[in-house]
Fold these 2 entries.
Entry 1:
Amino acid sequence: MIGAISGIWHGPFAGLLVRGGPFSGHGSLADGLVSYWKLDELSGTRVDSVGANDLTDNNTVTYSVAGPQHVVADFEETNSEYLSGTTFNSLPMSAQIWWKMESGPASQALLIGNYVGSSFSGWGINQASSGAVSFWYFKDNSNYNDYTTEVATTTVGRWYHTVVTIDAAGAGKIYVDGVPTTVAWGTGSAAVSAQAGALHLGFMSGVSTFDGQLGQGGIWTRELSQTDVTSLFNAGRGKKAQQLTAADKVGLVSYWNLDDAADTRADYIGSRNLTDNNTVLSVDNTAALPHNTAASFLTANSESLSKASNTDLAFGDADFSIAFWMKTAITGGCPMFHGTYGTAYNYIFDVTPGHLLQFRIFSAGSSLGAVTTGTVDDDAWHLIIATFTASTNTITLQMDDDVADSDTLSGNPTESAGAFSIGAFSALNGSPTTIFYTGKVDEAAVWSRVLTAQECIDLYAAGAGLFYA
C-alpha cells in the first residue's frame, strides 16, 4: 500500500504558473508524494526524482516534444513563401531553428541561412530529401565544410530543434533536440564568402522553398556549448526572446520568436527584421502539443516503461485515484497496467475496438467492473482520471471535463504484487498475449484517496493542465 500520492509522470500541457507549491497553490495534490518521473529523458531509464522507483525502458521508448509554445510561421511551398532579411556572415557562429515539415522535401529545403546555390557560397541549415539535416558553410565550391546528421529526421508533423555551431577554423557541430549528432566532410578551408546572399528562412536561392512551420530562430557570434543548447531546447518547449537568460544572450545578435500574426517578423535582439515574401501566414502551436517532452510508444517495437513486481502502486480494497494524459490515433492497446498475467490483475486501462478508453479493476484474475470514456483515439491529448471508492465499492472514469462514467463492482478488489507498466499489458511477465500501445503518455499520478470534483477540475484546468513543477 502507498501514501497519499504514489507516483506522478510529468506532463503534457502548459499548465498553470507555479505559485505556493508544486501544484500552483493546490497543495493537497502534493501530499505524501512518493515518486516523481518527469519523463523528459529522450531514451533509457526514466528517473524517479523523489523516490527509488525508476522506470525501466523496454525496447527503447522514444519521445515527443512540444515545440515553440506560441504562434509560429507557416510556409506553403506551392506559394513560394519565405522570410528574408539582412545577411549574417561571420566566424565563429551558431544558429538555431525550430522546424516541422508538412510534407517531405523533393530536394534541399533551407530552414535558415544565406546560402546561394548558383555560387556555392554562404551557410545554411538544410533539410535534405535523403532525410539528413545538414549544415553547410561555403566560401566557394573548392573551400567548404558540410556537417550532416547521422540519423535521418524526416518525420512529417514532428517538431525538431536544431542548433549548429562552427568555429573560426571551420569545425562545426549539429545538435538535434539537444543531442550532438554530426558527420563532417568537406574540402579546402571553409571561410567567410563575399558572395553570400540575403538571410532567408524557408527558401534556398535558386533551389527550393520549405513546406512546413518554423519557430524561434537565432544567430550568435560564438560557439554555443552543450549547456547553452540544453537551455535553449528547454525540455522540448523552446524559449521566446523574453525567456532567454543572460547566459543565453552572450554573443546573440538576432532572435526571432516568429510569433507575429503576419507580415514583418520582428528581431527582438538586433535589427534584422524579416520581410514577408508571398504572405507567410501564422498558426497557433500552443494547444495541440504536449507541455514539454512526453513518452512515445510504438506497438511494432514492443515498447513500454515498467517497474518490477511491487505493491507501491497496488491498492486492494482501499481508495485510490489515477490520472494521466494520453494521445493516440490507434484503436486498441494498453496505456497502463498493474498485475501478473493470468493470475492477479490490479487494474487495466485499454483502448477498446469501439474507440473508447476502458478502465477495469480486478480480484485476482477476474474483472469486477468496467467504465469507459468517450472517443479517445482521435489523435488529441486527453486527461484521464479514474477513481475507486471503497465505502461504496464504486469506480469512475472521466475524460477531460466530461461527466464521469461509474460502475458498482460485483465484489471486493484484492491487492497483487505484480509489475506496473506504462505502454503495455503484462510486458514483463512472459504473457503469450502481451498487448502494447501506440501513442503518447505524460503526467500520470496515483493517489491513495479519491480526488474531489474540484481537484479534477483543477487538474484539467480548462484543457491547459495543472502539472507538478
Note: The chain has two domains: 5-65+291-463, 71-284.
Entry 2:
Amino acid sequence: MVRNVKLTNVKRWQDRAILALGAWLVASPLVLGFWSAIGERSLDFYLIGAAIALLAFYELRRRSMWGEWLLVVLGAWMVGSPWLVAFASDRIAAVDSVAAGALVALLSIWVILRYSPNPYERTPKR
C-alpha cells in the first residue's frame, strides 16, 4: 500500500495544472484581448474555464475518477468549441481554446490511466 501514498502526490500536480488551465481559460479573453472580437461567445471560456477550475479543485481534495472523466469531456468541449460555438475565425481565441482544452483532456487521461484500478491485476489469495 506504500505505492498509493507516493502516487497521490504525483496526481496532485496534474490536478494543480488543470486548475491553472481552468483559471487561464477564465482570464484569457481579457488577457489576450479577444473578448471584444468574439462577443458573447467568450462566455464559453468563462463558464467552461470556471467549471474546469472548480472540478480540479474538487479533485485536489477528493480524488475521484468520475471527476477526471468529466474533465476529459470539458477539455474535449474546449477543443471543439471554436467550431461548435463559431469563433474559429478568431485565430487567437481558437488556438487558446484548442491548446488549453487538449492539455486539460490529456492531463485527465494521464491521471485516469495511471490511477484507475487495473482489472487484470490479480490479488493474492490468503
Note: The helical segments are 2-31, 35-38, 43-62, 65-84, 91-115.
